[in-house]
Amino acid sequence: MKDGSTNWQSIGLGIVALGVIGVVLVFLFGELRQAPWQFLTILIALFGGLITFAGNLNIQIRNEQKEKKVEVYERVIQFLFEIIFSQKAEQVKKPENEVADFFIEVTPKLVLWASDDVLNCFINFRQTAFKIEEGNSNSKELILIFGKLLLAIRKDFGHQNNRLKELSILGVFVTDIENLSE
């Protein structure tokens, strides 16, 4: 979830905090030579305030991004589900131009809103899909990558995924999941 601007914000916040702490130290050691406990109390309060501020900032950023992520992730899951499982449901395969339009539409949104793990899984999915078209990969591999993508999306929303693996989450979609691992 962290990007370059967030890192610069953190660095800037750290520099400001160090400056404030330096000023407080100079002032307190100059004025409070006989009362170091007062200095420690102020220092602890200052650190507590900075930690709280940084935590609230991260929560605010995450909450502002959540709505967009939900929208993009739902679109991705729905469309990829239709692509992957259309053969199982004996549906007509999606036309290539529709698939290309989907990737053109959703890729910039994923670059903006997806976590690093989700974006890496999506890139892997897309590359594997193109390998299948060229005959260099199989659809089982693509379905397993879809499972990894689903787990990454869940992780981005805060789920732990402790007892979930690719095959178990794909069991929601695939009835004969044990045949997929063969």
Describe this structure in words.
By secondary structure, the chain is an all-alpha fold. The protein has one domain (4-180). The protein has helices at residues 4-31, 36-85, 96-113, 116-134, 139-156, 166-170, 177-180. α1 (4-31) runs antiparallel to α2, α2 runs antiparallel to α3 and α4 (116-134) packs antiparallel against α5. The radius of gyration is 25 Å and the shape is elongated.
Keywords:
7 helices, mainly alpha, 182 residues
Question: What structural class is derived from the secondary structure elements?
Answer: mainly alpha
**For the report, how would you describe the main beta sheet?**
none
- Estimate percent helicity: over 70%
> Can you count the helices?
7
The string of secondary-structure elements, in order, is HHHHHHH
- Tell me the span between the first and last alpha carbons: 35 Å
How would the blueprint of this fold be written?
Blueprint: H1 4-31, H2 36-85, H3 96-113, H4 116-134, H5 139-156, H6 166-170, H7 177-180
Give a quick summary of the entry:
With 182 residues, the protein is an all-alpha fold. The protein is 78% helix and 0% strand.
